[in-house]
Design goal:
Elements: H1 3-12, H2 14-22, H3 24-31, H4 35-43, H5 46-57, H6 63-80
Length: about 80
């Protein structure tokens, strides 16, 4: 699973978000993210998560997609902190 897919799940599935809140390590392990990507998500640092998404999606070159990812990521991170 990609960071983008995981963030989408967390944003759209309240059960998955609750699981992440309860045990983020288990959810990240189950998602099968690369170690560096999992560390970025686990950090709950929006800039690290956004960078992982941008690298994954090529959104670095697409400012509209960057804006969407920023909004979604910040909302998700606010919900889990």
């Amino acid at each position: 699973m990609s960071v983008t897919a995981l963030m989408t799940e967390l944003a759209t599935d309240p059960v998955r978000l609750a699981e992440f809140r309860a045990d983020p390590s288990r959810v990240l392990d189950a998602a099968g993210l690369e170690e560096s990507s999992a560390a970025d998500v686990f950090s709950r640092d929006p800039s690290r998560v956004l960078k992982a998404i941008a690298i994954e999606t090529g959104a670095i070159e697409n400012s509209a997609m960057n804006t969407v990812h920023i909004i979604i990521t910040v909302e998700i991170l606010d919900a889990v902190i």
